[in-house]
Design brief:
Shape: globular
Structural class: mainly alpha
Oligomer: single chain
Strand content: under 5%
Number of strands: 0
Helix content: over 70%
Radius of gyration: 20 Å
Length: 294
């Protein structure tokens, strides 16, 4: 009986801490894990289904080190924006979270080393960008620098994921490179979509996001960029008329939703719609590879 109780206690402890780790990354499953997995599988393309879970784990563990770093920087912010996260929910102390923050780059780098020096390079640069973005203050800096840093971070995720999921662990082909370059530009010009829903918490900690600094142009410029990218990606990836119309209508619908619906709750739903559009945008290289040029 005592052994069963010990096993039960151990499983409960593992489950508790496992769920805590998941909660650090929960809000970014839809924003980073799913879109980047879509891009990698469509662009590399997916060499075999056995590569899918290892690729997703590589993305997730790097996402975890990024999120723990970000959430230990200004834990008070999440009281307003995301109270379920481990620090505001009191599932972990700030001291323990800070220790975790500085330990996590080690398994990220070690896991990447098991693949190739190119994957290790993507991992190292991503960990370095995390330090620059959080500890060196870019997260609280000008919105343009914040967008550019976000775009560079996405690129590191995407390069590592494409290398792991594809046939060549050392090399990205032309389609993969174009996919990553398009993603960098998309994120740099539209990632402010994530800031509308967080405006209360961002204001409380002094962040200088586009919706806070230029509220009159933040939504119209997002609508414009979504329209431009919907048209541009349709051309770049050779969509036929029906597919192009559908993709452009989705981009228009997401843009109009951001323009017309502007409460915090509505912006949360708007951001979900944005990530649907972004994930589909990341899947378009598969259309080009298997339909347009086949």
């Amino acid at each position: 009986m005592s052994k069963l109780k010990a096993v039960s206690s151990l499983l409960s402890l593992v489950g508790y801490h496992g769920w805590t780790l998941f909660l650090f990354t929960k809000s970014d499953i839809k924003t980073i894990l799913i879109p980047i997995t879509c891009l990698a599988a469509a662009s590399a393309p997916l060499a075999s289904y056995s590569r899918l879970l290892p690729t997703m784990f590589w993305i997730w563990i790097h996402l975890l080190q990024l999120d723990v770093s970000n959430q230990t920087l200004a834990p008070g912010e999440d009281i307003y924006n995301k109270s379920y996260r481990p620090l505001p929910a009191k599932r972990i102390s700030l001291r323990a979270a800070l220790i975790l923050r500085w330990v996590l780059p080690l398994p990220c780098l070690a896991w990447s080393t098991s693949y190739s020096k190119e994957v290790l390079c993507a991992s190292f640069v991503l960990c370095a960008l995390t330090y620059i973005y959080d500890e060196m203050g870019f997260a609280a800096g000008h919105w343009a620098g914040k967008n550019i840093m976000n775009a560079m971070g996405y690129a590191c995720f995407e390069i590592g994921a494409c290398l792991i999921i594809g046939n060549d662990i050392h090399f990205l082909d032309y389609i993969s490179l174009v996919s990553v370059l398009c993603s960098i530009d998309i994120v740099a010009t539209t990632i402010q979509a994530q800031d509308f829903k967080d405006i209360i918490g961002d204001a409380a900690v002094g962040r200088r996001t586009l919706p806070l600094i230029h509220p009159s142009i933040a939504r119209p410029t997002l609508v414009l960029m979504l329209a431009i990218w919907s048209i541009g990606l349709s051309k770049i990836w050779g969509l036929d008329k029906n597919a192009a119309v559908a993709f452009n209508l989705l981009g228009l619908a997401v843009g109009v939703s951001f323009a017309a619906k502007n409460t915090v709750e509505e912006d949360q739903r708007n951001y979900y719609l944005y990530n649907v559009w972004l994930s589909l945008a990341h899947l378009l290289p598969a259309y080009y590879r298997f339909v347009a040029i086949s």
